[in-house]
Amino acid sequence: MILPGATIGVLGGGQLGRMFVVAARTMGYKTVVLDSDKTSPAGLIADHHICAGYEDQAGLKKMAELCDAVTTEFENVPAASLRKLSESCFVSPSAESVEVAQNRGREKNFARQAGLETTPFKTILTTSDINAAVEITGFPSILKLSSLGYDGKGQAIVRSVEEVENKFKEFGSVECVLEKMLDLKQEVSVILGRNVTGDVSVFPVSENVHVNGILHTSTVPANISEEVTALAQKQAMALADAMNYVGILAVEFFITGDNHLVFNEMAPRPHNSGHYTLDATVTSQYEQQVRSLCGLPTGDARLTSPVVMVNLLGDLWPVDWAKLFSEKNLKLHLYGKEEARPGRKMGHYNVLAESTEQAFGIAVDVFKTIS
Ligand code: ADP
Ligand code: MG
Questions:
Q1: pLDDT in the model for residue 237
Q2: Buried b (16+ CB within 10 A) or exposed e, 322-337
Q3: Can you tell me which atom of ligand 1 is nearest the CA of 149?
Q4: CA of 67 to the centre of ligand 1 (A)
Q5: Which of 268, 303, 316, 339 gets the most CB atoms within 10 Å of its CB?
């Protein structure tokens, strides 16, 4: 076990890293952030900020010297950097786990092997793969960059072979997946924390609504049956077991009209849809990240109140904060980003209430007053 007083580090200085740093400091650890941005949200509040890129050898060496253990908040951190660090300190999640989650084709195949259902899909390496892919997916389908896509970026809905070809070229003719477009009834996610001894705690299932490809709200508990809830949690655990995963794993699922649970993607880090855990579970996903990284027992992931999380994007700026603070059941979290740009995640709020309906009503009313 790595205990308070030790130094733990995170690769990436965004809001997820910032909330990890807050949790770690609260628990008595010293913190290090590696990020090339001088004003990164996590770097600003860490004990030590190494201002360097993810592949900067001197930066990585410094990190390894300072830290007893290192995790990541950024899914596309080069696996080679994680491997390098793991030569001199404990690293979780492992380079192998992160590599699986970094590639859409690889993660879908991995999920299938673990017994999960995925969307019908095919990897496209060259235009000559397109016809065979279309036979599997039909139209409409979605072309997605295999790696580096996020918040709906790097993907396009396509309706003909010609459109697939054009989009593939537009994306730079790099590896993509073509997947069948499903008629979604709901989208949900499951987050879990697992430590090196295999001790695992699964958070409640969150129901997620996206606007323009970016998460807008998460509602917990999700409005789904107990069976689907249990299945989603079981499948997330099966994935974690199959990878011998250590750290926080977030799994996104689609739910189709006939209540089928379909694996979409996973992230080897805390997730935007888990921000609700800051105020509505016994242990937050960030505390759980510290616990799993440090080999501590995972904390209780039990929900303490129905909750609705609303993302605050830069489009809303400037915001009349007084409106938010006048709502007594609302918890505001801001990430300390100086510049508000459209689509940029600046903060979020959680509304706690007796029921998700009530929380949703308050969340929507407040949102209207600031948009
Ligand atoms: P990102 O990495 O940007 O989150 P996702 O694969 O999760 O990429 O896609 C973003 C959103 O686009 C999903 O949350 C969902 O709303 C929609 N979407 C993605 N794939 C499909 C699909 N096969 N069928 C229907 N909707 C989809
Ligand atoms: Mg997604």
A1: 98
A2: eebeebebbbebebeb
A3: 2
A4: 36
A5: 268
